[in-house]
Amino acid sequence: MATKVPHLMTLADLTGPEIMRVLGHAYALKKRTQPWLLPSVPSQAGKKNMRLPSQSLFPKTIALLFSKRSTRTRVAAETSAELLGGRALFLGREDIQLGVNESPRDTARVIGGMCEGIFARVGDHSEIEVST
Known about the structure:
By secondary structure, the chain is an alpha/beta fold. It folds into two domains: about 10-50; about 55-130, Aspartate/ornithine carbamoyltransferase (Rossmann fold, 3-Layer(aba) Sandwich). It has four helices and three strands. The chain has helices at about 15-35, 45, 70-85, 105-115, and strands at about 60-65, 85-90, 115-120.
């Protein structure tokens, strides 16, 4: 039987040690990917001796739901997915009908059935809360 994958809606869902483990892992990934982001290596030929970060998202698709626009957040999320071997699927307010024609629950069910993860950048946390 498959283990149920936890949903991270807020840091309050994690224990202190879990938060520290996530931050430690994020730091390690950032350190590993930093050389790939620096302009000092101008070509792919120069990058051939550099170690790729974990390809833990290969060949997964992560849906990026943005109801609140943010250039830095979008670039960081898309770049992160790519560096980890995945694909980011940007879905802005105009692309989906979150809370208009479709409930958050229906939207999550549809996207969750076609993508391996959902990353949400919203104005208010209530936009992603789903009542049971």
